Amino acid sequence: MDHTAYQQTDFAAQPIRSLANLNTPSTPQSLSRMTQNDVMSSATAPEQQQEASALPLPPPHLETNPLFRSIAASTSVYPHLHPRPLQDAPVDIKNAIVPVQPQTRFQLNGHEPTKTLDTYGAHTPAVSRPESPFRLATPVDYDGLSWPSTGTRARLDESEEEKAARVKKMAGAIQTLLECIGEDPSREGLLATPERYAKAMLFFTKGYEENLRDVVNNAVFTEDADELVIVKDIEIYSLCEHHLVPFTGKMHIGYIPNNQVIGLSKLARIAEMYSRRLQVQERLTKQVALAISEILKPQGVAVVMESTHMCMVMRGVQKSGAVTTTSCMLGKMRQAAKTREEFLNLIKR
């Protein structure tokens, strides 16, 4: 047989085997064995080493992605990238990717793992809605100053002189901005605008100086209650972190107590704390829900937010009637469709 023809046939078959590996259900043990075999064979057989060197390289933006590297290791497409088994995948909090161990998946909500779930919980479990991977690594920080921003601790602890220096620095930046748009910062109407805007921006973002522990202030009480508690139509004012323009709306918060309740005003204060930061609505909704879940350990939490974004009203697509609705459901609110429907009916959404 012609040696060149044999090599061409072998390389042509390689992508087919790789695609089959991607689509074939496998247990973590079989994935681990396959990964180890691929690595050992490429290290011992010169012919297979040559073949592995001809394998396609992933795009640069994917090569460093932990999830991509973990999945690549479970196939023969890119076994050289990440030889560890899939169940040993790294945690990637920033991208909301959290590997879940089979024996503990969904244990937070009292559900046993199902056989159809892979390591990242990608398949739909036997509940109404699957848990978000983010829920399994709650980013709640009672100090409240380190996620997702940096530098807020210095802002909180600074002296009066340092605060004055911060305002002066911000005012200088605003004066430069006014000059860049063609205005005259020295005219009467704009003379004090840079300093006024600097102070206003510090107020708009005052949530960076607040933390969950102080906001709640021990207002959690033992109570024999297990029915829905809802506070709706909480007014929200926040700044879009993409354009630094406002988005405003209303938030509706509900939870099912688990022998503990929180002062009703604290729900509104938690929403206020997270909204007074540079935000996106999706993250704001989830942060409030996760905070309540972490504080009370309730049977379920639901947060729905409706808002109008000035970044798509005053600019861009300019649709003044557009309303954005986001939700975050945890626990029984996520698992049980009837419970979720009861909450939505009570807030009339």
Condensed summary:
This protein is α+β, with helices and mostly antiparallel strands. 41% of the residues lie in helices and 14% in strands.
Task: Give your account of this protein's structure.
The protein is of the alpha+beta class. The protein has three domains: 3-90, no CATH class; 152-208, Orthogonal Bundle (GTP Cyclohydrolase I, Chain A, domain 1); 219-346, GTP cyclohydrolase I, C-terminal domain/NADPH-dependent 7-cyano-7-deazaguanine reductase, N-terminal domain (GTP Cyclohydrolase I, domain 2, 2-Layer Sandwich). It has 13 helices and seven strands. It has helices at 3-23, 28-44, 46-53, 60-63, 66-73, 152-157, 160-180, 193-204, 212-216, 264-275, 281-296, 332-335, 337-346, and strands spanning 220-222, 229-240, 246-256, 260-262, 278-279, 300-309, 324-331. Strands 5-2-3-6-7 form a five-stranded mixed sheet, sandwiched between helices. The chain has a two-stranded antiparallel ribbon with strand order 1-4. A hairpin with a 5-residue loop joins β2 (229-240) and β3 (246-256). α7 (160-180) crosses α8 and α10 packs antiparallel against α11 (281-296). It is globular. The N and C termini lie far apart (71 Å). Mean pLDDT is 75; it is low at 4-37, 39-43 and 70-126. GTP cyclohydrolase 1 is the first enzyme in the biosynthetic pathway leading to folic acid. Belongs to the GTP cyclohydrolase I family.
Provide keyphrases for this structure.
GTP-binding, GTP Cyclohydrolase I, domain 2, 5-stranded mixed β-sheet, 7 strands, GTP binding, allosteric enzyme, 349 residues, alpha+beta, GTP cyclohydrolase I activity, GTP Cyclohydrolase I, Chain A, domain 1, 3 domains
